[in-house]
From TrEMBL:
It comes from Thalassotalea nanhaiensis. Its main location: membrane. Pfam families: Ni_hydr_CYTB. It is a multi-pass membrane protein. This is Cytochrome b/b6 domain-containing protein.
Amino acid sequence: MQNKNSSKSLALVYVWSKKIRFFHWLNVLCVFLLIAIGLIILNSKALGVTSDGKILLKTCHVLVGYAFCINLLCRVLVGFFGTGFEKWGATLAFNKGFASEFKKYRLGKTKHYKGHNPAGKLMITAMFLALSVQMVSGLVIAGTDIYYPPLGGYFKEQVAIDSTQIKLIKPYSKVNIDAEKYQAMRDLRAPFITAHVYSFYLLLLLIPLHVAGVIFTERKEKSAITSAMINGYKTLPKD
């Protein structure tokens, strides 16, 4: 009888829209592939990868990166123009009232949340910052390393000896390359590489923490937050 009464006091609440769920799982796939390829690139010398092999790996990394960037930019737009829990105000930390909300959560005064709980909002904020740094720095590196869009054409013109022979400029080739301008380009991209690498390591830390947080919250709240990212519905008390 207790189980029956308990089930009657619960309700399915639609929380995560199709747009949010699509972004989440495509982002998971892209980040997983980018990390896998990135680790091979970082250890290419130890693995004996040739120059042509390294260019191929970087090309694959950039192509997956485009899907990652488009997906992230779409999520940014949805955060501003979407509805309900799509909006940034319902997703990120440090919005109005977050401090009191976090205090109640820390003291255990609020046990269920339709969207992310305060700890989840902190995690999502940190992950979006890391993902944004990856996106911006990755696009700069793609343009300065293997001359891919959107910045590759610009940097080709910057390092070319003869601007009428831009097509001769290829990754890792010195043909039609001005040595001083090329070095200046490499110096320009250095901080972006540093940011890319450190945000990469930050993601390697945040991802398992995120998974652990989901497991902890699932056990604590019992609101089906894992399946909610598949079907959109959380199980919450009717009150």
